[in-house]
Structures are given as structure tokens and as C-alpha cells.
Write a structure and sequence with these properties.
The chain is an alpha+beta fold. It has 3 domains: 55 residues; 95 residues; 321 residues, Porin. The protein contains 5 helices and 22 strands. The chain has a 12-stranded antiparallel beta barrel. Strands 14-15-18-19 form a 4-stranded antiparallel β-sheet, with no helix packed on it. A hairpin with a 6-residue loop joins strand 18 and strand 19. The protein is rod-shaped. 19% of the residues are buried.
Length: 486
Amino acid sequence: MHFFDYFRYDKFLGPVTRIPLAAVRCPDGSTEHKRLGVRIMRSIRERALLGLMTLSALDPEPLLAADEQTGSDAAQVQVLQRELQTLKQHYAEEVRKLREIDARLQALTARMSGSAAVQSAPAVPPVTAPMIADNSVSAAPGASAVAQVQAEDANRPPIATRSAGASRSVEDVLLQEHAVFNQPLILEAGMTYARYDRKQLTLNGFLALDAIFLGNIAIENVESDTFTFTGSARYSLTPNLTVNVDVPVLQRWTTYQKGGAGGAAAVVAEQQVGSDAHVGDVIGGVSYRLFGETATRPDIVLNTSVSIPTGRAPYGISWRVLESQGDYIQFAVPETQPTGNGVWGASAGLSFVKTLDPAILFASIGYTHTFARHFDDLDTNPATRNPGRVDLGNAFNYGVGVAFALNERTSLSMALTHRFNGATRVRADNLGYWQGVIGSDGNAAALNLGMTYAISPKFTLVASLGVGLTPDAPDVTMGFKVPFML
């Protein structure tokens, strides 16, 4: 006998949902077997009811929400991984582009300024790939691209550029002490005041008994105040070649003092001689960069110039005699003041600059040759006329200094300059041979202090103060310049 027993789970699982239990075969159709089958099915039913009641006691919504949350987090992790990979790849490409643009920009800047650098300055900070907190998540392929960019930057040679920034303050120092090649045109207006005071003791007599001086004692003093107004122009023909012209206008007042006037030691005669403003000797020059600055070599520039005798020469000026004794002139002064040397001159020299941020070291060396020239009158006696040739002698000069770029707009400098002048020679037409002028050689050394301040992107104020260290140098020199960069 075959029978099937179905148990409806409509109350828990919904309507028309049935679970087949089991089929019990009773070969002899006895009641015991039937009862045994009924007990077995009843036990199965009770266990099923107990399981369903347990399941019904639980809330199914949190379990479903947890499953949904787990699936959402996994999907979000995958999305974030894809976004991170894309951003890393874009970041590596942007860094590579920035490096290339920075290299091109610095190369163009170095070519325009004609200078080479002492150190490289990367425009973009070193790239570091972002770290992922979860160790179970592997790094995206974008990290390998970033690492490749870093390797390329490490193998790339340093780009030549001037440190200290080719900053504005550095350029102002170079303009005054060296040369600037990255500015097309620079116009400069300046004024300089120089004070010169020289005293000389004159003894006219003899010593009696090797201890007593018998004769006249005279003290000569010359005080000169000179104002120089200079207009300059500098033009860059190429990144390594610059031409310049300087046109000075001088105005000078000189006071002559002489002790022992009229034979009396206590009497002092004084006379002041001035002059109107007059053009001085115009100077034209050319500067050429021989070698650019590197890590071990300074910037080296060859400077040449020519001095044109456009100023009033000191020869042929009429003198006014204030005191004389017979044919001997004791005190005479010129009618006016000279504003130039009166002869042609050619100069050549080298200037050196080494940038050591924030310091700038500079030095110069030069030689000046003057050409002899003929003048109609060389004598200071207004009553006589003596033509002849004058050779002022050659000169050698050098200078060393240091400047500090305090910030982008301000710099301070200190320099020592020294100039040696050869003795002057004259050759009168009636003599035919050269004669040296006693006391005409010179040894002028000065200590110069300077400051530059950039007023605007085009204007700069330059102030300087010079103190003479030898008698032949001016006692004090003060100057102000205002370069204008076009």
C-alpha cells in the first residue's frame, strides 16, 4: 500500500506551498505499520514546526540589510580603486609635463640672460605615491608611472640657471659692478658729489746750524667740490654683447689758499674759482661675455671703452696772477675750471662675478692707455705762450668687493678700488724732448659702500658712498643713480 502525507505550511511560508514528506509502504497492510508510519510523519512534522517557529522568532530584515551592506562596500571599494588608479595615472602625466615645461622655461631664461647656473632648482616638489591603508588592496598601476617619473627626474642632468635668483636685487648689483645682458635697453640718470682737499707745506729758505730754518714758510691748500650729472644708455645687441655710452656734465668750485702772502707767514690769501656746467669727456664702451657662470667658474666679461675729449681741457686756460715777486709768480689761479682730461683714452679690462647665495662676489682689473695730444699753450703764465704735446701717462686699476642680496628688492655692497696713474710728460715744441712733471703720478684708493633698492619693476634707486684711503683720492664721494629698464 502506498500513501502520501502532505503537510501544509501555508501559515509560515505562504499559501499553496507544500512539502512532500515520505511514502511508507505496508506490505501486509497491518495497523502497526500504519501507526508506525503515522508516528514517523508526526515526528517529522513536529521538528519542522519547531524549526519554523525558531526562524519566525528572528527578524529577517537586519540579515538582509547586512548582506546588502557587504555587497555595497565591496562595490564601493572597486569604484574607489578604479578612481585612484585613474588619478595616479593623470598625476604622473601632469608631473611629467610640469618637468618638461620647467626645463624649457629655465633653458629659455638662461639663453636670454646668457648666464649659466650654479645649481638646479626643481619647480615641482618630489612626487610621492599615495599609500593605501588597507594592505589587502594592491597598489594601482598609476604608482608605477609615478615611480617612472621620479626615476627620469633623478637621471635628468641639472638645468643651468643662476641662483639667488637672478632676482631683481642681483641684477641691480650686476648693473653697477659688472654688466647685464638680459635687458634690451637701460637708461640711467645719476648725480655724484666729490670733495677733494689737499694741503701742501712749502719751505723757501735754508737751515742755519742744522736746526734753525731761515726763510719763508707757506701752506698751500686746494679744496674742490665737484658735481657730476651723468646720463647713460645701455643696449643689449645679443645675449652676450652690450654697448653703452656715458655723457657727464660737470660743475666745479675750487678754493685756493696760500699762507705767507706778502712775505708774512701769518697772512693767508684765498681765492675761489668756479665754472658753469659743461660737458665732460664722453665715454663709449662695449661689454662682451666671454664665459658664463657655472658651479666652479665665475661670470667673465670683457669690457672695453673709449674716452672722447669733449670736455674742457686743463691746458690753454688763462691764469690770473694774484701775487708775484719780480718774475717769480707766488700765487696764481685759473680763470675757469677744466671738465675733462683733454686727451683720447682707451681702456680694456675684465670683470668677474660669482654668485654664492645670498652673497655675490665681484672683482675687476683694467688698463687705460692715453694718447699724446698737441695743445697750443702749455704754460700757466698768461704772459707767455708755449705750445707742445702732453702725455698724461697710462693707468692700471683693480677692484674687489662683495654684495648681499637682502631680499628680492634690496642689496648692499662693499668694494675696494685702487688706481695707479703714471707720471705726466710734456714736450714743448721749442725743446723737442719729453720732460716729466714732478708729482703728477697718482695713487688713489677708495672704500665704496653701496645700496640698491627696486622702487618698481622698471625703476631702481642706487646710492653709494666712497671714502678716500690715499691723499690722491677724493676725501668723500656720494652718488645717486636711477636706472630705468625698458
